[in-house]
Amino acid sequence: MSSTDPPPAMPGVSADQAHQPEEKWGPVVLTISNSVLPLEKLSPTPSSLDGMTQAVEDDLRNLGCNLIQTAGKLLKLPQVAMATGCVMFQRFFYSKSFVRYSMEVVAMGCVCLACKVEEAPRRARDVINVFHHIKQVRQGKPIKPVILDTEYISLKNNIIKAERRVLKELGFCVHIKHPHKLIVMYMQLLGYEQHDKFVQMSWNFMNDSLRTDGFVRYQPETIACACIYLSARKLGIPLPKKPSWYEILNVEEDDIRDCCYRIICLYQRSKPVQEELDKVVNSLKAALDDRRKQAREVASSVAAVDSPASQPSSPVRQVENTGGEEDRNSRSQERGQSRKRKKHKRERSHSGSDRDKKDKRDKKDKRDKKDKR
Fold first, then answer.
1. How far apart are CA 105 and CA 344, in angstroms?
2. Residue 168, Cβ neighbours under 10 Å: how many?
3. 225, pLDDT greater than 50
4. I need a surface site. Which of 17, 52, 171, 184 has the fewest CB within 10 A?
5. What 8-state DSSP symbol labels residue 72?
6. pTM of the model
7. Is residue 59 a contact partner of residue 239, using CB atoms and an 8 Å limit?
8. Residues 229, 260: contact at Cβ < 8 Å?
9. Would you call 244 helix, strand, or coil by DSSP?
10. What is the biggest distance separating any 2 CA atoms in the chain, rounded to whole angstroms?
C-alpha cells in the first residue's frame, strides 16, 4: 500500500465514524497543592457575607478543629488522620457558611471522612458517642450513653450527608501533604535532629497550627519552616543566616512571619465557649430566615401581579361615566323583552299541547260510537 492510500477501515466501523474528529475534554487537575486556596476565596468568607464577624468565625474554626483533635485522641486515630480532618474542615468553611451548616455535624463528617482517607476507619456510631461524651464533659453534665432513638438516626443521616457534602465541595481532592515529616527532614538538614526539646516544640506548634487557617493559605514547606522558626526563637537557638536557611528551602521570609503571627494570635485569644457561639449563630440563622421569608413574600406578590391567571380572560368594557346609565337601561330593556318572548313561547307550547289532547279525545269518542253501532 502506497503512502497516499487512506488507512484501512476498522472492522465494524463505518467510514463516517472513522473520519469523525476526536472529542477533546478539559483537563481535571488533582494535585496536593489544591489545598491552598486563591486569595479571592479567602476574603470575603461565606460566613462574613451572612453577617458573622471575623472573631466569631475564628473561634468557630478553633473550636471545630479542637473537637476533631480531641475526638481523634479518644478514637485512637493516628495524628495524620486528625490533621487531615482539620484541614478538610477549614477548607469546607471557606466554601460554605457557619450560619447555614452546623459546625458540630460537619466536624463529625470530617472525622469520618478523614478516617477513610487515612485508612483508619471508624463507625459513625463511635464518632457520635465520642462527640456526645466530649460535650457532656465540657458542660459538666453526668456521663450518659447516647439513646438510640429517632434523634440519633437523624443525626447519623446528617453526618453521612455532611461527609458527602464535604467531598463535593472539595472536589474530591482530599489527599493532603502534611508538614510533620518535613519538620524531621529540616531538623536533619539543620543538624538538630538529636535536640529532642527543639523537635518536640516544633511538632507541638505544627499540631496547634491546625486550628488556624494556615493550611489553606500556605504550602506545607512554609508552615514547617514557621514552626521551626518559632521554636528556635523561643529556645534561643541560632539558625544559619548567610545564606538564610529558609532560602535554601525555597521559602520566603514574609510568608514565615505571617504564618508565625497567625499561630501566636491563636494563643492570645480567649478560650471559645460553645454555648455563646451557638447563641450568635442561632441569631444569625433567625435573621437569615427572616430575609428569606421576606424575599419569598415579595417574589410571590410580584408573581401574582404578573401571572396570566391574574389577568382578565376577556377584554374589559370601559364604560364612560356619561353614557353608563343609558347602557344599563338598554341592557335591562333587552333582558325584559327576552323574558317576554320566552314566556310567549311557553304559552304557545302549552296551548298547542291542549289542542292535541282535545283532538285525541274526539277521535276516541268517535271510535267508541262506531263500536256501539
1. 83
2. 11
3. yes
4. 17
5. H
6. 0.70
7. no
8. yes
9. strand
10. 156
